[in-house]
Amino acid sequence: MQGANSTEFDLDTDYPVVALIDEWVNHDGKVETRDENSNLGGTMRLGGQECELVPGSLAAQVYGKASITERHRHRYEVNNYYVPRTEAAGLTISGRSAGHEKLVETVELKNHRWFFACQFHPEFTSTPRNGHPLFKAYVQAALAYKADKQGK
Predict the structure, then answer these.
(1) Which end of the chain is more exposed for a tag (fewer CB within 10 A), N or C?
(2) Residue range 126-151, pLDDT digits in tens
(3) What structural domains does the chain harbor?
(4) pTM of the full structure
């Protein structure tokens, strides 16, 4: 999709792969309407959100379980309309929100040493003495790659 973009950066993109969700149901069941001029605080996806992981995925291997809760702080989401096309092109959706929206939470590339992206913020729960599982797994993958390159 030549020119695919986020509407955060290009409102006129032909392929808004990442965009605002126009309507959002908050935890009280109230529908909130969003647009690019909405109040930032009232239109963000905030706090701990449950994510269901695909069995056998890198995410499931890293966490060692089928469901996780991670913290969010953002307004933009992967546009579910484009998910089938991105999956057909080789991107693996390895985690989705547990709610009825089934929003994309994590993506991976198969047959890659480490290609992982997430919608949430693992840095919010990571500390120097207790690193987040994703950061630990990334460092382990980097060390394994280095060892492979050195023939060890």
Answers:
(1) C
(2) 999 999 999 999 999 999 999 999 98
(3) 45-149 (3.40.50.880)
(4) 0.82
